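User: For a benchmark we're assembling, each entry needs the component sequences followed by a predicted structure for the full assembly. Here are entry 17's components. Please fill in the structure.
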Amino acid sequence: MACFRLYIGLMRRMRSQGVKETGLMPGEDLAHFAIEYARSRGASYAEARHEYQIGEQMILKNGVLDALSFSEDSGIGVRVLANGGLAFSSTNRLNKGDVRDAVNSAVKKAKGAARANPIWFVKEETVVTEWSVPEKVRIIDVPTDLKIRDLVELDKAVLDLKIKIPARIFVMSHNRIRKLLVNSEGSEIRSYSPRIRLYYYLTVAGEGDAEQSYRNYGWSGGWEALDELHLTDKVIEEAKSLQQTLEKGKKSPEGKMDLIVGPQVSGIASHESCGHPTEADRILGREASQAGKSFITPGMIGKRIGSEHVNVVDDPTLANAIAYYAYDDEGVKARRRYLYKAGRINEFLQNRETAARLGTRSNGSARATNYDREAIVRMANTFVEPKDWGVEEMLEEVKSGIYMKSFMEWNIDDKRWNGKYVGREAYLIENGEVKHPVRKTVLEVTTPAFWSAVDAVGKDLEFEAGFCGKSDPTQALDAAFGGPTMRLRNIALR
Amino acid sequence: MEDYASRIVRKALSLGCEDAVADIYETNNFQIRFSQNQIDITNSWKEQAASLFLVHGKRVVLTDIRDLSKSDEAVEKVVGIAKISQKNLEYGGIAKGPFKYRSLAADKRITSLSEGSDFVYSAVNAALAEGAKETAGTFLRNDQTHYLATSNGVEARDRRANLYLSIRALAGLESSGHGIECATQFAKFKPERAGEKAGHIATMARNPKRGEAGRFDVIFEPLFLGSMADQMAIRDSAYSVMAGLSPFGKKIGKRVAANIVTIYDDATADGRGRKRFDAEGVPARRTAMIQNGVLKTHLHNTSTAKIFKTKTTANAGLVGPEPHQIVLKPGDWKKEELFEECKDGVYVTNTWYTRYQNYTTGDFSTIPRDGIFRVKKGEIVGTWKDVRLTDNLLHLWQNVKALSKETHEVEWWGEVAVPSFMPYALATKIGFTRSAE
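Assistant: Structure for entry 17:
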C-alpha cells in the first residue's frame, strides 16, 4: 500500500548535493572486505550493498517554505546465508571494525536461526557491470535557490487562479542514489539513479463545503522533469477541477451501470489488485503479519482473473519512470513482467529466495529503500498495458454511466480481494456525452469483478508516482503506477 | 556525545544562526522476522548520526550528519544552503531551556540482550497451542540513545530501550488473529500472551462468511481502537490542521467525541513511546487533547504554538508537532459487560489501510482484518469477512458508548504507528459496507 504520514515523512530522507556521478564512493573497499570476511566466518553466501544517497526536500505549505531538508546518507548493508539461516546487518560507520562487527552479527544470527527448512537462493548469472540514468539537466547543476523558485512559481500559478484554496502543501524532493552491490558469487554492479518527485495536497473551499486532492508525480532523470511532466499545467488543471466539482457537482447515481475510469484509477487498480497479490513473498506468507497475504496461491498461474482485454505488467526498465532500474538489489537483470496476461494470472514477482522456494527463476524484483534494509520482492512501474481505444470511442457506446477520471479515498484488504476507489473527479455520462460532475462516486468491488468488467482499453497511457509500503520496518519505496482509460461494463456504483 | 551535540550547536551559532538543535542518536537494534512458524531473517542495525536543525535569518534547514568527525564541515555546508533558502515568516523559535528532567533508566537486561529467538518461538508455540496452523511476525529489541543540545540552553540525554513482539496467527487462509506484546522492562515481557491472543482469535475466526452492509454497534479490540486513536492524534497536530489534513480546524472547545472519551498524549507513561523530552528539549508531559469529548488543544511545538497563540505542548517535531504516546482514559466496564451490552453488533479485532475522502470532514474508510465477529444479544454468533468500516472519524468517536477498565499497550506497523494504551470500546451505529461481486 502507499502509506505515509506526511509530517513524519517530511522529516526523513533529506538529501543534498555535492558528489560526482561516477567514480568510487568512500569506503567501497569495505563492501569487498565484508564479503570476504563473511565467507571466512562460514557464510555460504554473502552480499554487501554500499549506498550513498544524497538529496534535498522542500516543503511549501500555504506559500511558506517550512523547511529545506538535505542530507548525505551512506552505509553498508550485509546479507548472509549460513547454516540455512538468513541474516542482514548494516552500519553507517564506514570503517573496518564496524563492518566486521556487522558481519559477525549477521553470520552468528543466521547460524542461530535453526530453521527446519533451510533458506537458499536460486542460482542466477554472475554480473559485473555498471548502469546509470542520464540527466538532461543535472540536478547537481541546478542551484538550490532556483529549485525553490520553481516550487514557489508553481504555487503562485495556483494562487493566480483566484480560487479559494484555504490549504495547500507542495513537497518537492530529489534523491541521487549511488550504489555498489557485490556478492560472493562474483557479481559487482555499480549504479547511479537520480530521482525527482512532487506531491501535493490541495483543499478548495466552497460555501460550507470543501473538496480535496492528492497527486504524486515522479521521474528518473534530471531537473528536466519539471517540464517533461508538465507539473504546473497539471496542478492548475486539478485546482480548476476541484472548483468545478464543488460548484457543479451532483450526487452520483446508484446502481449497476457502465464505468469509464481514467489513467489514475487504472494505475491504482493495477498496483493494488494485481501487483501486490502477485508478489511471491506475499503468496508464500513471508509478509503475512504486516502487508498481508494474497488471494493468489502458488498453483493459480493460468487462472482467469479478468477479461481477455486485460494485460497488467510491471516493468522496471521504463525510461524515466521513477522506479527505473537495470539490475535489482540482488544483481539480477531487470525485465518486463506480465502479471496478468489476457485476463489470466501469468507471472509472480520473484526474488532469489522466493524463486528457490517456488522452483523458478528470479525476475529481478528485489529492492530495498536504502543500505539499511534487506531487499525484498517489490513492484517497480506497474501499469495496464494500453490498447487502441480512444476515450471518445469508449464514451460513444455508453448510454448511461460514470466517467471517473481520478480518485481520492482508496483502500484494499490485505489479501487484495476487496478494493475501494472513491471518485475525486467524476462525471455523469448520458447517451455517450459527458455531463455534469458527480461527487464521491463509490466503486467498491472485488478484484475479479473489476478486471472481468473491462471491455475496452485505451491508448492514453499515463503514470503517477507513489510510495509503496511493505516490510518491517516499513520500506516506503518509489513506485509508479499507470494505465490508459478503460471501460467497465455493468458494474455496481453508489 | 553530549559534547559533540553542543559543539555542533556552538559551530552553528558561530556562523550566524539564531537557533540550532543537534540530536545525536545512537541505535543498536535487532529484529527477528518470522513466518510459517520459522525465522526468516534477523536484521541488526548499528547507527550513529546527528539530526541537525538550523535557523539562519528565519531560513529553516534540516539535515543529518552521518560522519560526526566531519561535523564542522557539515554545519558550514548547511549554513551556506540556508543563506540561499527562503525565509519562513511563520517560524516562531525553539523552547527556552535549560529544563529539568525526570530520571529514567533503561533496563540493563534489555540493553544487554543479544538473542530473541526464544521469545519468537514462545509466541509461535502459544499460538499453535490455541489451534493456529501458521504464524508470522516480528520481534524487536530497541535500544537507542539521544543526546540533545540546543542554542537555548538544553543539554540532555535519553536512552530508550524496550522490547516488542507482533504476531499474526492463521487457522486458515481467511481465519486470522493478531497479538502485540510490548515492555520497557524485561521481566514484564511475555510474548506468549501475544501468541495466545493471536491464536485464540484465529481459531475463533474459522469459516468466515461474507459480512453485511449496514449500521451496527461495534466492540473494538484495543488494537483496532489504537488505529482510530492514532488517526485522532495525528490529525490533531497543528501541522495537520494548517495543511488542511485534519477535521479539527476551528474546533478547539467544541465537542468532537463522546463525553466518556478523554485522549492524552503522554510521553511520561511507561511504554514504548516514553521519552524524557521532545525534539526541542521540552520535558515530556501528559497533554489532554480531548477531555470528556471536547477538543482542548492541538499538539504544538514552539513555532506552531506561537501561530495559534498558545504554548507548546512538548510535541516537537521540528517541522511539525508529533504525538509521542496516546493514552485513552479507561472506563469502568468489564470486557464481558461490553459484549452483554451489544445486542446487534460486530466485534472487530484489527484494521488497516485507513484512508480519507476528505481530511477536513473526517470521512474515511478502513478495512477490518483478522477476526471479525457477528454479535447478537451479547453472544458471538458468527464470523465475518470482506467488510469495510466506512464512516466519519468524529462520528465514530462521538458514538463511543462504553470503555473497559482493562487497557493494553498496542503498536503495530503503519496502522498504530504511535505507541498507545487502549481499552476495549463499544460504539453505536457504525457504518459497514462491502464489495460488489
